[in-house]
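Recall from the previous lesson that a structure prediction takes nothing but the amino acid sequence as input. Here we apply that procedure to Pyrroline-5-carboxylate reductase from Clostridium aestuarii. The sequence below is the only information supplied.
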Amino acid sequence: MNKTIGFIGAGNMASAMIKGIVKSNLISPEYIMTSDLDNQKLNKIKEENGIRITNDNIEIAKFSDILYLSVKPNKYKDVIEQIRSEIKEDAIIVTIAAGMTIEKIEEYFEKDIKIVRTMPNTPALVGEGMTALCPNKLVTEEEAEMIEDIFVRFSKVERVKESDIDAVTAVTGSSPAYVYMFIEALADAAVLNGLPRQQAYRMAAQAVYGSAKMVLETGKHPGQLKDEVCSPGGTTIEAVYSLEKNGFRAGVIEAVEECVKKAKNMGK
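The prediction returns the following tokens.
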């Protein structure tokens, strides 16, 4: 790829994406730069990936053909006001923030600008991320495919309507946290029943990983796969009954609903 890539913000998501890009050998590390005020974060990223770093957002705006805004939603307006007159004429802005609509970003830039709104997740760190993206009307199909090609280096990619991004935020962007809680709860139960802690974590995590792979690779409905594990009068159906009795599905659905509501309100 004959492009320079910049990241404003050196948080977990930016770190995951940078690692994925560098590991894939898509471009040389010297063509990647990230900015942040936290020198400790910057130095760690530089040490791990060999990329360029700076404390100056204007420097990175001038440098980048593709500029990722990996900052909190409440920082977007200030950052954009700082860089909007400094970005390259044909730069593509890639947003990574819940609740920040394309319309809002266009308003902050106060000019026509190419924007791709995305929602990745942190499993990108291990090359197993999930990213949804939505380009604005100024982004060409070739440019949209180029952005996709970056994300596929560390995640699966789906193009979605912008109206679906808030649901994506809850179902893939935030859901690793729910899954980690589930793994922790499984491990706690295993420890309660005598299994060593680290072994419990490994076994619970592998069970979740394998189950997800079954859904993706078999194409079967999750309910069918669940039924295939539940023998009549067996141990699994007893556990499923207990989960249902305690509102397992309703609890998950309500959590996603609350996440979607929060995402919708963050851009206001």
